[in-house]
Fold this protein.
Amino acid sequence: MNQDYIKADNWSIIEEGFDAERVKSSESLFSIGNGAMGQRANFEEHYTGETFQGSYIAGVYYPDKTKVGWWKNGYPEYFAKVLNAPNWIGIDIEINGEAFDLHACTQVSHFRRELNMKEGWYHRSFEATLKNGTQIRADIRRFLCMDLDESGIIRYEITPINKDATIAYKPYVDAGVSNEDANWEEKFWEPLEVKHSQNSAFVTARTFKTHFIATTFMHNTIWLNGQNATLNPENVESNNEKIQFTYSVNVAQNTTSSIEKIGGYTVSMNHENTLAAAEKVIATASQLGYEKLLEQQKNAWAKIWEMSDITIEGDVKAQQGIRFNIFQLNQTYSGKDSRLNIGPKGFTGEKYGGSTYWDTEAYCIPFYMATKDQQVARNLLTYRYNQLDKAIENAQNNLGFKNGAALYPMVTMNGEECHNEWEITHEEIHRNGAIAFAIYNYHRYTGDYSYIPEKGLEVLIGIARFWHQRASFSKQKNQYVILGVTGPNEYENNVNNNWYTNYIAKWCIDYAAEQIQKVAAEYAADHKRIIEKVKLSDAEIAEWKKVSGNMYFPYSQELGIYLQQDGFLDKDLVPVKDLDKSQRPINQKWSWDRVLRSPYIKQADTLQGFYFFEDHFTKEQLEKHFDFYEPFTVHESSLSPCVHSIQAAVLDKMDMAYTFYLRTSRLDLDDYNKEVEEGCHITSMAGTWMSIVEGFGGMRIKNDTLHFTPRIPKQWDGYSFKINFRHQILKVSVHQNETKFVLEGDHEIKVVVNGKEVLVEPNNLVTV
Amino acid sequence: MNQDYIKADNWSIIEEGFDAERVKSSESLFSIGNGAMGQRANFEEHYTGETFQGSYIAGVYYPDKTKVGWWKNGYPEYFAKVLNAPNWIGIDIEINGEAFDLHACTQVSHFRRELNMKEGWYHRSFEATLKNGTQIRADIRRFLCMDLDESGIIRYEITPINKDATIAYKPYVDAGVSNEDANWEEKFWEPLEVKHSQNSAFVTARTFKTHFIATTFMHNTIWLNGQNATLNPENVESNNEKIQFTYSVNVAQNTTSSIEKIGGYTVSMNHENTLAAAEKVIATASQLGYEKLLEQQKNAWAKIWEMSDITIEGDVKAQQGIRFNIFQLNQTYSGKDSRLNIGPKGFTGEKYGGSTYWDTEAYCIPFYMATKDQQVARNLLTYRYNQLDKAIENAQNNLGFKNGAALYPMVTMNGEECHNEWEITHEEIHRNGAIAFAIYNYHRYTGDYSYIPEKGLEVLIGIARFWHQRASFSKQKNQYVILGVTGPNEYENNVNNNWYTNYIAKWCIDYAAEQIQKVAAEYAADHKRIIEKVKLSDAEIAEWKKVSGNMYFPYSQELGIYLQQDGFLDKDLVPVKDLDKSQRPINQKWSWDRVLRSPYIKQADTLQGFYFFEDHFTKEQLEKHFDFYEPFTVHESSLSPCVHSIQAAVLDKMDMAYTFYLRTSRLDLDDYNKEVEEGCHITSMAGTWMSIVEGFGGMRIKNDTLHFTPRIPKQWDGYSFKINFRHQILKVSVHQNETKFVLEGDHEIKVVVNGKEVLVEPNNLVTV
């Protein structure tokens, strides 16, 4: 039974009723972020029930000790951790002398949370009776400014409803935080300075080892009965890492008082003097004030939705699901800063440590490409370009490659590998392929070739060199093989000739060689600069091509399918449907060896290749492989259902496509994997978007032209999405019997719908 | 360049000259033990130079936290650690008011260590000049009593040689010790009680978690000029975990004073009241006194050597090497206690954590079988029998097996698995085979079948059930396969159809089925008891036989050899001799993925099967496989050279056999692997013994008869060994042109020498 307490609503995530058991799940689901920072939906006031506290600053991490392996070499020295950042949201409350704590109240009623995705704010309200008998109503709204992205604001209103009350608001900032997953309660922040001035306070702290400096700040205003009470704190308590103000107000029964707290972080990544920067942010934000900031917030989100909204008619849960996904993606990554990337948990939890996985290239780039200016996708590509030197160092110093071969890390914050299982770190090398594929995909979608001569070609060369060296020649097969890898299906480790890996390896070499030729022909100066820099000869390219031209691909003549890896057919091939439910999920029920020797597939593997390279195969081939592999797929990765949904749609298996779609879009809202407490699955949310646009909508780019093969689940009346295609916006609306196109732009485009060309003129509805 | 500071000597290990750089290596090499406890050759007096302190009590361990794997299941909750035990050897010394410390002396000369293997004591002597100018001569002997095995004794003599001296002897016992490899300087001992009475002191402490209680004790006597000074301590200092006495004596120039310190441990494994037991041990030992104890020690070792000595003529280094191996084996395991086993580092270091590996069955049992009463080998078998329930629990609860299948742990202290790498813990399952093989080997050697109906059969059934369930049917091959294993060559992980594993799996099933029949026929009552206990039906046995009768063995028709695993021939087969020396040892130079996809073999794998099952194959087959696999073998396990030495001898490759022999026998003395600081390689020392007896001597048991095919390296004039064969002692002396046999016993035996029967009568020299 999945979780089902979230109310269905087109635009909001809503919880009603207070249940301490749900607090950690809701803290994840109601998380807010603005690309630069984010936080779980922790209560502002002190709470003694179970909670998972988390505030995060984009790009700020800690390198924790790696201690694995008895004798094995090549592990990274550390694994990066997302750090729980200092707390700026905290507001302790005392009411008639009693510390207010929802967990200790004699009664809580009308408890309601709303995450308003349309306008970008989080709201909580309730009535509560304290042990001392005082009954209050509270109304709390919080948002992280999308524009002024170093700040957020909280308005915390309290109305005593059964008697007058003395209310003490005690806002604080606190750098004395630790991580949930810290070993031995290690601290990661070293406090440097605590400062305050009138209603503002600042705690400056530095991370150990990485030496990021962050000033965490607050600025408070107290309101009574709608009027600014112009109070200064009556008490200031501080130690070397925390500062707390006390403001007391006497509030008559049924009169409303409130605190407005502006807070946030200024970080040494962006400022030389973080304290001075914090003072400026406070000045700007407090001058604007709560109402104006809220106005700006609504406008900012309106712009985002204008471009990225997907509507679904006739299925509120599906609508809520897709908007939740789009909302979270926009909260996590704004695309402004090429030093940042998309963490698998975004700002909703600590799990998975680093920020950057191959998820970015394989699943996220299409979403950002289609719903943002192309500069955003270019920034994501540039992130990898900027880390190319580290990828080469990794291959050379840790793994014994030479001559500029690059292996990008499986998980990273700063370009260094920070995952520490050999079967992943050293062997899940297909990630290099996705990084090259994203360059191809960017060019295919945007038509912007300039990235390749400027930056991309160096990345492609480093990757091609890696594959050339990583393959070895099998005398027995008289072909090149790639031994000892882990494919996208992490439920097989150290296998030989994973088809997906071999296929993308060959593709990478061929694509790199083609781009070298093209750059030589069309961008001679860039070609010269790059060839000299990387010292590449034609003879070396010829060596690469020997490998790509004679790569081995495991194939079953009898079944007519490519094999996931050499040994796949020796497995005991019992399909998932015949597996007892008590054994699922296998990664929680089975020891690792049992998982490995089973035929069960965690996420698309061979089918991932058919997804990336759909145009290399016939529909019959796709169907044969889908029908063979899907029955063994347990979809125990959040990244699995979306690819299967897209392929099921292509194969007109619409019931399957819809089932997979629901699973991906409401994975967290309905908590399919019983782990939403730990945070949301951010990167797979981009896969949800793909399920609609590429799956149901059938969008493809072929020869610089948009193609659509619209399909619609029978459960829906209609759906629509917009895409930014080469600086014009195309809105696509699909209903059961027709598809409509509207173009916002200034020049007509040709699109291909179900194989037929259609001309779409600016601002002119076209119905097909 | 290997280490070469150990003086060649037939009976002793000797170091001359003081070099602080060598202290840690010598601490390992001069370690002493008596089966119940042991210790590194740490100095008694305080030493401020680099040192690795270690005292160990057999069977006392600590379960340390396991923290590995991001999502993988089935890891053990802890890994066991050998614990550094409380220190009883410590004697701080003050001379004319200055704390004596070899590292702080202005001069040290005539420094000499001797480990007298013949008599079982460790001696150290030197002259030293303190900063205060006092010059002394010291003479220190220490041994751990083989008979009274809870005690040891130290005589520490000091003679001032340039002036009179006031000497304070400050002996102590201290439970405030920690492990070298402890995380975060964790303590493992909780002090319970400190007590003293006259010249005796006792510290009782309990290990955390495992709750072993040990009383560490001392009893001191001060001597001056050869007379017992009948002193009581003039000062007693103690805290909750340490107690220290001070005895001061005024010693005239060139007069000798000494302290005799009796010490040791009494442990809750053996005593209800460890303190009372310690008082008894002191009473017994002090009544005997130093000289008598030393006398006993010499006698005890004389008996051991009488039975287990191997002589080598014409090669002192080889002689010293083999005696060092035999000496260490006898120090590590006496065979008295079936709760104990043979740790890979014995009492010489902490590494490898647990005590029991498959080394015991594969390498150690033959040595103990041939040089001890057969009860000793039986105790080693019983150790596993006593842990059968835990092996079944492990298979069922952690690994998903059912119906009494047993998987013995890779590493254990108490029967629970305590190794934590999935590729070893879950996949190096061939260990189960060695445990069954040892039962067969015990019967083959001793002729004592009674162990099988009494205990062994249950173990064999649990193991057969494991293999039956662990194999799976490959439709493609139409045979049973064993997927996802690590063979003896740990440089391949998660491979399919490791030949050695498949072969021993089949053998285990067939052997178990035969023994069930035999026990049914000959031990009907035992058969009934066991079958009822384990609920075994004929139908189940028939299912086992389906698997063993149709097992797949990877084979190359072209090469005429069995393949180490399915994918072996796809590797880049460059022999070790063509590998650049800078790349060795590969486990230190290469990342793990590179090791895995290389063809390099850590230790005998396919050849291990040819060693165990030599009689299943022709000599031509052995030669073909040896010639194929040896060139890829890097021998980076201490267990590797011995098997290769034996097989090289069988194949008349005597130069190779001799090279491998030297490498195994002087591995630690010459520090081939540059790691002797961490401790000695105890279990491989039994392999050294096998290299001589089974390799050069060619000893085999066939049909209850001893066979020999004596060979001799050209570097030697002769060698001899004794074996205990079915309660009679046969001494075998091999010279370049003849082999002599002498039997100590009361009935003649038939032996087969080079294929010919020879009758050996009691006490009658036979020359062949």
In short: The two ends of chain B are 41 Å apart (CA to CA). Residues 198 and 232 of chain B are 6 Å apart (CA to CA).
